[in-house]
Design goal:
By secondary structure, this protein is an alpha+beta fold. The protein has two domains: about 30 residues, no CATH class; about 60 residues, no CATH class. A two-stranded antiparallel ribbon has the order 1-2. Strands 3-4 form a two-stranded antiparallel sheet. Strands 5-6 form a two-stranded antiparallel sheet. A hairpin with a 6-residue loop joins strand 1 and strand 2. Helix 3 packs antiparallel against helix 4. It starts with a strand and ends in a 14-residue tail after the last helix. The relative contact order is 0.12.
Length: about 100
Amino acid sequence: MATKTNPRTGRKIEREKESEGHITTSGRLGLQKKQFALPASATEKGKASGAKGSYPIDTAARARNALSRVAQHGTAAQQATVRRKVKAKYPDIEVEGKGKKGK
């Protein structure tokens, strides 16, 4: 594997793409933009981090996790976008909900 550098810290990344089932920095940086449910943050912090997006959906397990996380922390528009992209990529995953309950 070629050695990469973390754009945020400048440290070399020499590990595999996953460690004990969790995606590593190298793995996340190796994902394509289309493998994220939401585009990169437009904030300066988002641009500086080198992030390509939020909520990776490169696997079915990560797509389910993206649905859970956006339900907890996302706006109604973000939730709708993540649900739509997960449903398009993984039609077998049940996608429900109208947003945060009680708000």
